[in-house]
Structures are given as structure tokens and as C-alpha cells.
UniProtKB/TrEMBL annotation:
One of its GO terms (cellular component) is extracellular space. Pfam families: Trypsin. Residues 29-265, 263-485 form the Peptidase S1 domain. Residues 1-16 form the signal peptide. Gene3D superfamilies: Trypsin-like serine proteases. This is Peptidase S1 domain-containing protein. One of its GO terms (molecular function) is serine-type endopeptidase activity. Keywords: Disulfide bond, Hydrolase, Protease, Serine protease, Signal, Zymogen. GO terms for biological process: proteolysis.
Length: 487
């Protein structure tokens, strides 16, 4: 079993995250201020119906086209809620506003109002929202990520402007530098009230989140410039919004990455996810697959660490959203040229025994004829047969370009930017394997992905002189690096 590339791409939201069309003005002024309209497009207003009138009760964060993250303490049984997106001035009718009803609300099963632990809830919208300039999901940090002390994060919300004051009409933002766990748990700060699953920010006595901000996001920019939501406003000092040494306390999103993924993706399944293609994890947040696997109209999720496709909750497996999908601009459907795409995951994954990145080959490296490579995937077991339940592997020796492009073989359809492997009439890749990797061992024993399954013979999976054709990864290393550094 080659564990590093056990991954499935499953169909169903291709969208970006964390990069607003109207960038927030982050001027580092001290004190809250009006946000630039729609510059925090993942900010939602959670509203409840009070005698026929919708009232703002909490903030929240759109984290995909159908899921909203908020605080558990924002949710009361028996209340009717709606989610307002694309809002700036809460009292104004705005063209940008989108209102949607929850299909379900899932409060963390271990939510403790007494100790304010696990203050997190997910709201599933009754339909996917149209992602646009003014309504856009946030990125989430990697599981277990710890914010360094004093990171410049921003809390946003329509919360009270001052202790006991009214809620704001316009969305407010305030710079709230993060406070590390050691400082926040000092006895004269929050002491034992603050757990490892919480993040603190503020506490300088000047700026702080206030009650009405509950459930709203703590937004911090990552190294690539995208905004990630690291916290959900959980509590502060009831007496005052901005008391020294009493920073606002947030539920740490990175501590609940697993919970968020499992709850939301499980609820999303409902029979609607199906295996489309294989792919290979090549870094903590990038997956290599084939361009022909991607249909811009579909939403995708990526499953990693899988062995059996039938088992829902496999130990060691995880499902992740896609943040962005980039297909090669010169991909040609007709000739299957440049059949390569990269998927950016919405949050980086933590490597484990079951999830690991494959190596990439040296740029330009061409494997010799007969090199023993292995195809892996859940592709069809025989021509037009069913998909495999368990991950399959097959030895496919490399066929050199001269042979592969011979008129009796693939002729002009094979180019020198492809790898041919197999073609002995017995073992070969089949269509369900599309996008999946051709794994070849390097002299140092590490496995590298030399090919991405592109096409085979339409007549069958194992036609003599028709080896499986892969996009040759070593021909695209600079493209891969460019995409990964600029997205
Ligand atoms: C918000 O909209 C209302 C209604 O149009 C308007 O009266 C009010 O002045 C606006 N608030 C701000 C702060 O601009």
C-alpha cells in the first residue's frame, strides 16, 4: 500500500476563499471603525424572528457556499433564524444583501454554557449561496495552527460600540492583536478560564470585541495574503468591552478543524458525493490532478487517507474543501495536451501515517524504458466494469516516447510531454483512474509522482500497444511551482 496518495476528488463548490474583491482598509487605527463596505464578504449577520421582525443577534462566518460558522451560545432552541450575507448597513435595504434560511444548525455536542467550552456551531444553508464579490467564504487555518503572539488580527461585527451601547448600523472592524496562551492564562489575565482550544486577542484596554459581536470572526492574514478566520467570538468581560488584561476570548478555529470538516462534510454527503478522479497530494495544501477531471460547474471536495471508498468514516481519512482549482491554460480537450490541474485545499492538512505528500520528479527528468512504476486509483477494474471499492495498484513499466509514438502505438497522440506506461495487454489504467498518479521510486527510495493519468484506449483498458498515457509531471515543474507560489 502506498499511503501517500490515497486521495479522491469528489464532485459537488469551486470557489476561492479569503481574498475579497474590495480589500479591507487595514490601517491599524486603534479603536473600532466602519469597515469598507463588503470588504469582509464572509461576515454574516445571524438574525432571529421577533414578532415578525428580523433582529441581529450574532455574527458568523461563511466558510463555504453552504456553511456558516458561529458560536454555540448564539443558538437558542425554538428560535427562528435566518442568515444575512452581503450586508454592510444593517438597517438599510441593500442590493448586495442575500438572506437565506438554515436547513440545519449543529451545535457542538460538548458545548458547555457553564464553562464556555466548545462554543462553536455550524449552520447549513438550505441551498448553496451564489459566491460573488460581496458574498465569499473565508479560508480556515490549518488544523492545530497556533497564532504567534501579537499577530495583527481584526475582529469584525455589528456588536455594541461601547459597553451597554447600541449595536452598530455599519459593519465595524477593530485591530485586535492576538495574545498567546501563556499570557492569556496568567492569573491576573484569564487564568484557567482560557483553554488550549481558545484564542485570545486584544486586552490593551482600548479595543475589544463586544457582546453583539458574538459568533463573529477573528480575521488574520496568512503569509500568502489571504484572510483566514482563526477565532469565533466567544466571551469577554461582561462588565466592559475593553478591560485591560481581559482580552476577548475566541473559540480557536484551528482546534476544531476536524470537527468542522467531519460535521459539514458528513451532512453534505447525503448520497450526493461521488468519486470522479484520483489525484496526488504534493504539499500540505496542493493536490495534483488532471485538467479533464475538472468541470467548472461542479463543486469538489478532496478526500485523503482513504482506502475503501465505501467506508464513510475510515480511520485516518479526512475530507477537505477546495479553495481554488487551477487548470493549465493550454489544456486541449481534443488532443488531451497539457492535461494537468492543481487543487488548492481550503486549509493545509497535517501529515500523518495515512496522509502524506508525494515528491515531485526533477524538472525535465525522463524515465528510461521499463522503469517499474505503479499506477494507483479506484478506477474501473475492467473496461466498463464498476469502480473498485479498495484502492488498487498496478505495476506499469514505462514505455519510451519513440515506441509509444510509433504509428502502431499511439502515434501523434503521444507527445514528449507525456509518459506512456503499460500496454502489455494485461494491466493498465482505466478511466476511473483519471487524474491519479503514476508513482515511481527514486534511487533514494522515496516515491515521486511522474505522471497524472490522462487517457487510454477507448476500446478497452488493456489493449496491446495502447499503454496508458500520463501527463509527464517533470515537464510541468515550473508551471506547478508558479501556480503554487502565486495562488
Ligand atoms: C444606515 O441606513 C439607514 C437607512 O437608510 C440610514 O438612515 C443610516 O444613516 C445609515 N447608517 C449609517 C451609519 O450610515
Amino acid at each position: 500500500m502506498m499511503k501517500f496518495l490515497l486521495l479522491v476528488v469528489l464532485a459537488a463548490g469551486a470557489y476561492g476563499c479569503g481574498l475579497p474583491s474590495f480589500p479591507p482598509m487595514v490601517t491599524r487605527v486603534v479603536g473600532g471603525e466602519d469597515a469598507t463596505p463588503n470588504s469582509w464578504p464572509w461576515q454574516i449577520s445571524l438574525q432571529y424572528n421577533k414578532e415578525g421582525e428580523w433582529r441581529h443577534t450574532c455574527g458568523g462566518t461563511l466558510i463555504s457556499d453552504q456553511w456558516v460558522l458561529t458560536a454555540a451560545h448564539c443558538i437558542s432552541k425554538g428560535k427562528q433564524y435566518r442568515v444575512a450575507m452581503g450586508k454592510h448597513n444593517l438597517t438599510q435595504d441593500e442590493d448586495t444583501a442575500v438572506f437565506m434560511n438554515p436547513a440545519s444548525i449543529i451545535v457542538h455536542e460538548k458545548w458547555s454554557p457553564l464553562f464556555i467550552r466548545n462554543d462553536i456551531a455550524l449552520i447549513k444553508l438550505d441551498a448553496p449561496v451564489n459566491v460573488k464579490d460581496t458574498v465569499m467564504p473565508a479560508c480556515l487555518p490549518a488544523a492545530g495552527f497556533l497564532l504567534p503572539h501579537n499577530s495583527p488580527c481584526y475582529v469584525t461585527g455589528w456588536g455594541r460600540l461601547s459597553t451597554g451601547g447600541p449595536i452598530a448600523e455599519n459593519l465595524q472592524q477593530a485591530l485586535l492583536p492576538s495574545v498567546d496562551h501563556a499570557t492569556c492564562t496568567r492569573s491576573d489575565w484569564w487564568g484557567g478560564m482560557v483553554r488550549k482550544t481558545m484564542v485570545c486577542a486584544g486586552g490593551d484596554g482600548v479595543v475589544a470585541g463586544c457582546n453583539g459581536d458574538s459568533g463573529g470572526p477573528l480575521n488574520c492574514q496568512n503569509a500568502e495574503g489571504a484572510w483566514e478566520v482563526h477565532g469565533i467570538v466567544s466571551f469577554g468581560l461582561g462588565l466592559s468591552c475593553n478591560f485591560p488584561k481581559k482580552p476577548t476570548v475566541f473559540t480557536s478555529v484551528s482546534s476544531y478543524a476536524g470537527w468542522i470538516n467531519s460535521v459539514s462534510l458528513q451532512a453534505d454527503t447525503g448520497g450526493s458525493w461521488s468519486h470522479v478522479c484520483g489525484g496526488a497530494l504534493i504539499s500540505a495544501n496542493w493536490v495534483l490532478t488532471a485538467a479533464h477531471c475538472i468541470n467548472v460547474r461542479n463543486t469538489y471536495r478532496v478526500q485523503l487517507g482513504k482506502h475503501s471508498l465505501k467506508v464513510e468514516d475510515e480511520e485516518g481519512s479526512l475530507a477537505v474543501w477546495t479553495a481554488r482549482i487551477i487548470s493549465h491554460k493550454q489544456y486541449s480537450t481534443m488532443l488531451s495536451r497539457n492535461d494537468i490541474a492543481l487543487i488548492k485545499l481550503s486549509s493545509p492538512v497535517t501529515f500523518s501515517d495515512t496522509v502524506m505528500a508525494a515528491c515531485l520528479p526533477e524538472p525535465g527528468l525522463v524515465l528510461p524504458r521499463g522503469a517499474p512504476c505503479h499506477l494507483s486509483g479506484w478506477g474501473r477494474l475492467s473496461t466498463s466494469g464498476p469502480l473498485a471499492d479498495l484502492l488498487q495498484q498496478a505495476l506499469l513499466p514505462v514505455v519510451n516516447y519513440e515506441t509509444c509514438s510509433h504509428p502502431d502505438w499511439w502515434s501523434f497522440l503521444a507527445t514528449d510531454k507525456m509518459v506512456c506506461a503499460g500496454g502489455d495487454g494485461i494491466k493498465s489504467g482505466c478511466s476511473g483512474d483519471s487524474g491519479g498518479p503514476l508513482n515511481c521510486q527514486s534511487p533514494d527510495g522515496s516515491w515521486a509522482v511522474h505522471g497524472v493519468v490522462s487517457f487510454g484506449s477507448g476500446q478497452g483498458c488493456n489493449v496491446l500497444q495502447k499503454p496508458t498515457i500520463f501527463t509527464r509531471v517533470s515537464a510541468y515543474i515550473s508551471w506547478i511551482n508558479k501556480v503554487m507560489t502565486t495562488n
